[in-house]
Design a protein that fits this description.
Elements (H helix, E strand, L loop, with lengths): L2 H10 L2 E10 L2 H12 L5 E5 L4 E6 L2 E5 L2 H4 L7 E5 L2 H10 L3 E9 L2 E7 L5 E7 L4
């Protein structure tokens, strides 16, 4: 792909938001704290029983709760990018030297994947369902 086409393609992809990740073993206490801190109730809250996790989003804060053991594989993730097209980002990232840590998969809010960027940072990419 030539440089002009590559830049045009990049402009079509959009990062819609970035979430700060908070890891905790005390879900309810932590969720209450961030709801009180922001004056906002969680907009999204769900469990991932297979992974032993509970998650909630309060504004741009993603709370991820579980035991120390269940959280361990996720703690190295630096950020969550909310994107408009997981498929396009997957294609772009693999073509540009990123390592797929977790392949695209269905989650309660839509689809996600975890990527190690060429600089070593680890980012979760999430595409919410259109009705989420």
């Amino acid at each position: 792909m030539d440089l002009f086409r590559m830049r045009s393609h990049i402009l079509l992809m959009k990062i819609l938001g970035t979430l700060t990740r908070i890891y905790t073993t005390t879900f309810d206490e932590t969720l209450r704290f961030y709801e009180d801190l922001t004056g906002t109730k969680a907009g999204i809250r769900f469990a991932l029983p297979a992974a032993g996790l509970e998650l909630a989003q309060v504004q741009d804060i993603l709370i991820i709760a579980g035991s120390d053991d269940t959280l361990q594989p996720f703690r190295s993730t630096n950020a969550t990018f909310l994107v408009d097209s997981l498929e396009e980002y997957h294609r772009f990232l693999t073509a540009h030297g990123a390592e797929i840590i977790r392949q695209p998969q269905t989650v309660p809010t839509g689809m996600n994947m975890t990527i190690r960027h060429p600089d070593g940072s680890v980012v979760e990419y999430v595409e919410h369902r259109k009705n989420s």
